[in-house]
Amino acid sequence: MSLFMNKRFVYCMTYSLVVIFLMIASRLSFAVELPNFTNLVKTYSPAVVNISTSYKDKGISSQAKTYGHDGGAYGFSPDQLNNKGFADDIESTSLGSGFILSADGYVVTNHHVVEGANKIIVRLNDRREFIAKLIGSDIRSDIAVLKVDAHDLPVLTIDDTPDLEVGEWVVAIGSPYGFDHSVTAGIVSAKQRSLPSESYVPFIQTDVAINPGNSGGPLFNIKGEVIGINSQIYSRTGGSVGLSFAIPIDVVVSVVEQLKSKGKVRRGWLGVRVQEVTREIKHAFNLDKIQGALVNEVFAGSPAENILQVGDVIVEFDGAFVPRVSALPVMVGKADIGKALTITLLRKGKRTEVELVLKELVDVARTEKTEELPKVVNNEKIVLGMTIANLSDAMRKSSAVKTGGAWVNSVRTGTAASAGILVGDVILMFDGQMVKNARQLLTWVKTIAKGDSIPVLIRRKDTTRFVVLNIE
């Protein structure tokens, strides 16, 4: 009995030791696989620069400029570390990052780092300082090119064929809050992210700790190649919360080449406003898949006029698949201007191909409308949890709708509210038919059945979009 107990004890101890050994070995194996960025930093940090700017501040708090919103995407301009920003016409400073693109002194950074600057100073890792000349800057991509009078400078290696994968390790070097050449690391969280007002950039999302001052600095892959420029973060505090966004290097290279050769960036213009194809849109339009970009407006005088129609779903552009709405502006911006190309679309359920020629995108100044909504002066009609009316002259002026439509004067709990319709919206199209007036819309509503999903095109201020009315 004693011998049996001893054998059992030895067996249990041996088994326990094996399990412990395997656990330790597994952890050690995992630890060995973690990357070491020491050589990368030593090799490439000399080509990362600190950028400081000065400009006349017209009486606005510098902190208000940087942290003016409670949440949202933050470009880091300007990072005011030395100025309280309360007086008028005072000299303000901001800090950012950048990197050397060529040995003869070309430097890349963000547009917002140098925007409005009277003086730009580039400081190298060895503490040398140069006054930089602004070669060109592009607000749509948030990229700027500088030139310093220097030679034989260290340069970074660009990843010419980026095949970046979600989950890859990445490294950022920059000057957060003015702390030069700070290094942070993380992984790629997502690719081709679309941010508000940045439709021409398919951002790389990472969880790298990025803070004010990192703007314009390089994002490296594990091989030390530049794969992007750190540009924005999403934060409610202004500091890093693990949501960082970088401009992909292929976008950077294209913009830099044009800024150096032409001083500006040319982009294609299609002349449509598009929106995402959601599950509700798919059902309402009887689509097979959730893909493409839904056209909700075609601009007069554009390449798309008389060729594309409201309600078309663009699924291919010049032979390339359009997976979602954010992909289309990038494709259009890169496409050749003045050259015929083919667009594949779904129109009323049928696959169709059309051909058109892109024009050059021209920036047009836009102003925000702040006037009060016009009052209804004609009879209202109640339908689907909202009251509608014909448009008065004041309503047409406010909404820029010249003919037709039905004005939404109030919204109650119900179908319209669930679809996101608001007071002041103008209903332009109902289930594929243009709305002439409120009475016509009321007549059409009476013909729909419970359980139907109806696509409705609305005008809101200076934009149009489709919403879906789910009839209950």
Task: List its traits.
alpha+beta, 7-stranded antiparallel beta sheet, Pdz3 Domain, 472 residues, 4 domains, 30 strands, 10 helices, Thrombin, subunit H, globular, 35% strand
Describe this structure in words.
The protein has 472 residues and is of the alpha+beta class. The protein folds into four domains: 42-147, Thrombin, subunit H (Beta Barrel); 158-248, Beta Barrel (Thrombin, subunit H), CATH 2.40.10.10; 268-360, Roll (Pdz3 Domain), CATH 2.30.42; 381-470, Pdz3 Domain (Roll). 20% of the residues lie in helices and 35% in strands. The protein has ten helices and 30 strands. It has helices at residues 2-33, 38-44, 62-66, 111-114, 249-262, 279-284, 327-334, 393-399, 415-419, 438-445; strands spanning 48-58, 73-75, 88-100, 106-109, 119-123, 129-131, 133-138, 143-147, 157-158, 169-174, 182-193, 203-206, 218-220, 225-234, 244-248, 268-269, 272-276, 293-298, 313-317, 320-321, 340-347, 350-357, 359-360, 381-383, 386-389, 406-411, 426-430, 433-434, 453-460, 463-470. Strands 6-5-1-3-4-8-7 form a seven-stranded antiparallel sheet. Strands 24, 25, 26, 27, 28, 29 and 30 form a seven-stranded antiparallel sheet that branches. A hairpin with a 4-residue loop joins β7 (133-138) and β8. The longest helix has 32 residues, at 2-33. The radius of gyration is 28 Å and the shape is globular. Residues 59-88 have low confidence and may be disordered.
Q: What's the architecture of the largest domain, going by CATH?
A: Beta Barrel
Mean pLDDT: 83
At the fold tier of CATH, the topology name of the largest domain is Thrombin, subunit H
CATH class of the largest domain: Mainly Beta
Tell me the span between the first and last alpha carbons. 78 Å
Structural class: alpha+beta
The helix tally amounts to 10
Global morphology? globular
Tell me about the largest β-sheet.
7 strands, antiparallel
Low-pLDDT ranges: 59-88
Number of domains: 4
> Percent of residues in helical segments?
10-25%
Radius of gyration: 28 Å
Strand percentage: 35-45%
CATH homologous superfamily annotation of the largest domain: Trypsin-like serine proteases
Spatial strand sequence of the major β-sheet: 6-5-1-3-4-8-7
Overall number of strands: 30
